[in-house]
Amino acid sequence: MKLIDLPGLNTKRIKALSESGIHSILDLLNFFPRRYIDRTTVSPIQSLSGSGEETTVVGRIKKIQQKGYGRKKRLEVIIQDNTAALKGVWFKGGHYIRKQFSEDQLVAFFGKAKQYGRYLSMAHPEVDTLGDESEVENLQQIVPIYPGNKSFSKTYINSKLIHRWQQMILKHESPPEFLPDGILKEHQLPVRHKAYRMIHLPASESDYKMAFKRFKFEELFLFELSVAKMKHEVIEKQQGHLFADLGNYTRRFFNEELPFELTEGQASALSDIKQDVRSGKQMNRLIQGDVGSGKTVVAIGAILMALDNGFQAAFMAPTEILAEQHFRTLSEFLDPLDITIRLLVGKQKNSLRTDILTDIEGGACNVVVGTHAVIQQEVSFHRLGLAVIDEQHRFGVRQRAEILTKGSHPHVLVMSATPIPRSLAMTLYSDLDISVIKGLPGGRKPVRTAVRTQKKHQAIYNFMEQELADGGQAYVVYPLVEESEKMDLKDATAGYEKLKNRFADFNVGLIHGQMKSEEKDAVMQQFVANQIQVLVSTTVIEVGVDVPNASIMIVEHAERFGLSQLHQLRGRIGRGQRQSYCILVHGQKVSKEGRFRLRKMSETNDGFEIAEADLKLRGPGDFLGTKQSGLPEFEVADIIEDQWILEQAKSAAWQLMAEDPDLARPNHRELKKVFVPYYKERSRFYGMG
Ligand code: ADP
Ligand code: MG
């Protein structure tokens, strides 16, 4: 059967359908209802409360009348069952609708029943005209409602018509199953052609629920299968460098250099890494740890394992500021060990750059720190054994795949400061092994957070003054609204001027996104060295910077920030021995969601809890902030709501991949037909195709 065989299809409608991505009969079958209305219960009119409940009533027509004039013109049809009367009202199209009615006729109205004056009414009810009472049985059904759009309404494609088409298609078509029998049975999924019936022509609520589950499963299963395949092809088949020895570097660092004990979380992450790099396979591991949990030391441990075995390591951060900061931290730790570490960033002079590149290629340089350009540009390494990526979620799956597959196939260690909720991590990072660093290094006092209105600035500044006088340092953060960076700058600059006056006894600095990176760096350095006590900034300080003496943070217009962003910001303080304070200042008008965010921040310091809440508020696309995050846009499934289906689909997919990686078995033939093109598409996306 072809689209064109459907009744009522003309070129305009075909165009409208194709604008919605419907080019074939199968596409149309995959066009699912947005919701269903339940017409299975017929209510006695007397029983209705009139508060707008959606229901079906059946009665005989008592009166048909045209009422009102001009714009108030309307058709009223009064029906009565053996309990009471109800009025159907049409403000539009009454002239046409009235043709189907005659007095004493039996009709069913479906709609929202509201009490208006003396009468219960339904505005524009759906109507079925019935021959006699026996037809009531047939009429009762679950009616699918399909999503509409502009081109649909222009060409008069409505939900009813789509439903008619689906009925027609399902009379003739029976799409073949491709999920293996065993999986259907194990997860109690309806077979494909039945599922289509259950979704378009359900007999009950449980019908379409089961059908939806199946299609969600199918979608997530294919996705997970592609991730499993990717892992199988790219990683499992790939030999990993062997870091067999824990040598001098590692021993000296942990025994002599490191000024503190590792936390339990750090130690267990390191032991995971040690196992990976001795397995003979390529490591592809994510370290998840809240801000301040001490991921850098873990990375250093991994770097030393590479160096001890004669390999080089690369350490990459999303921004130059961060790369520079990591360069300083790493230098501090590694210089005493006579390790050569170099910073590679865009702004360096050509001669210096050439020099660095030569050292990397020749092997004189052990560790390169930079932005992700380090991997993307034509930097050739002497013997790269490990790539560390900090603040992972800004990188995206694609870049990660590039690193894994290109060059010398280094081990990859990614570190995420944004605690990604389990549900999302499972999907996004299915191909990664995950270590979670729980808890913060000892001696840390949790940051205390307060929410205040702008009116309290006086009191806030007084408090801040005490902290400063007591030797602390402060961040004052202004929001950055992308559409108008200029306006923010005005905010931050005005704030800077104000604070300079208010805190005349201290040094106040300003840092914002439009400054050159040398300028930013200079200001940052001054803050680190405590030559500046108050740092006014836009959100450029969001990730990674480490100034343990900073103990107070004031966030202006805090209601404009997202939850994860606030959490990242707050992570800048509470890094030293001092009790730290975060004050979230908000304006007069705060949306309900804004209030929720502020309250959440004041209630918890737990990054995972905050991330979970943020994900719920914003949805996965926004949460990750980037389309290239690697997450496909699922059509049917919702990776938050449908977590349990995701887990089932994942385990089924990975098991199948382990048993029959090429889908060569006869009972996987149909699956292979569907999967091969799907996988091709996904791997193209990953830059591997
Ligand atoms: P993040 O996980 O946010 O990247 P960092 O690696 O920047 O955290 O560590 C935050 C701070 O905690 C740094 O100043 C670091 O030196 C310190 N730190 C890390 N591990 C420990 C530890 N086990 N004990 C005490 N301080 C630690
Ligand atoms: Mg960090």
From TrEMBL:
UniProt domain Helicase ATP-binding: residue ranges: 276-437
One of the GO biological process terms: DNA recombination
Keyword Nucleotide-binding: yes
Catalytic activity, reaction form: ATP + H2O = ADP + phosphate + H(+); Couples ATP hydrolysis with the unwinding of duplex DNA by translocating in the 3'-5' direction
InterPro entries: ATP-dep_DNA_helicase_RecG (IPR004609), DEAD/DEAH_box_helicase_dom (IPR011545), Helicase_ATP-bd (IPR014001), Helicase_C-like (IPR001650), NA-bd_OB-fold (IPR012340), P-loop_NTPase (IPR027417), RecG/Mfd (IPR047112), RecG_dom3_C (IPR045562)
Family designation: Belongs to the helicase family. RecG subfamily.
Primary role: Plays a critical role in recombination and DNA repair. Helps process Holliday junction intermediates to mature products by catalyzing branch migration. Has replication fork regression activity, unwinds stalled or blocked replication forks to make a HJ that can be resolved. Has a DNA unwinding activity characteristic of a DNA helicase with 3'-5' polarity.
PANTHER family, A to Z: ATP-DEPENDENT DNA HELICASE HOMOLOG RECG, CHLOROPLASTIC
Name of the featured protein: ATP-dependent DNA helicase RecG
